[in-house]
Specification:
- The protein has four helices and eight strands; from the N terminus they run αββββαβαβββα.
- By secondary structure, the chain is α+β, with helices and mostly antiparallel strands.
Length: about 200
């Protein structure tokens, strides 16, 4: 994908539980072949350890602003993470369009998952402080963040909504879903890495 979509967790995941229904018309735990049987075209985009990552332009239920999706499939738990990256938000010096899209998505996610468990909507903490430098600030580490997180403790699903900066007047939305067994996947990978490191000493 044109922007890095990391495999690892950037926010607190909740305790895992069994759950079938995922976002965008797919189900947690579906295999690559099951996804492809739905007419989804998956293009391999790398991976790490037991996780394979794929990208696609279309899912059974598409978000209108979506440009691409990244799907992360574990060799045991299958589909356990999805990242949606939006089309670019252009000609938006003051971030008004981006903030409105973010606000709309925030409300829709709240209808399904309840109020955000955490969030930060602040810019101008460092370097880029003028109002027309909104996206430069979001793209500069330590200057600003526009995020909201959600947790469904019953289903074991976590969601991270972000408004990201690219350059002056230009940004995009990213939504990251972590499925009910994602924490198990990460814990196992960390354990295996630790055991492998110990074996080299």
């Amino acid at each position: 994908m044109k922007r890095q979509l990391s495999i690892f967790v950037f926010f607190l995941v909740v305790a895992p539980a069994q759950s079938a229904e995922g976002p965008f018309g797919v189900n947690w735990g579906e295999s690559k072949s099951a996804l492809e049987s739905k007419g989804i075209t998956l293009e391999a985009s790398g991976g790490e350890g037991r996780i394979s990552s794929f990208k696609t332009k279309q899912l059974p239920k598409n978000l209108s602003i979506a440009e691409q999706y990244a799907l992360f499939i574990d060799n045991e738990y299958q589909l356990q993470k999805i990242v949606m990256v939006s089309k670019d938000i252009d000609e938006d010096l003051y971030g008004l369009k981006g903030k409105q899209i973010f606000s709309d998505l925030k409300s829709k996610l709240a209808q399904k998952y309840g109020s955000p468990t955490n969030g930060l909507e602040r810019v101008g903490m460092a370097l880029y402080k003028d109002e027309n430098e909104f996206y430069q600030c979001l793209g500069y580490e330590g200057c600003g963040m526009w995020v909201a997180t959600y947790e469904d403790k019953k289903e074991g699903v976590s969601v991270l909504l972000e408004l990201k900066g690219m350059k002056r007047g230009k940004g995009y939305i990213r939504i990251t879903y972590e499925g009910p067994n994602w924490s198990k996947v990460i814990d196992t990978m960390r354990k295996n890495k630790s055991e492998s490191d110990a074996g080299t000493l």
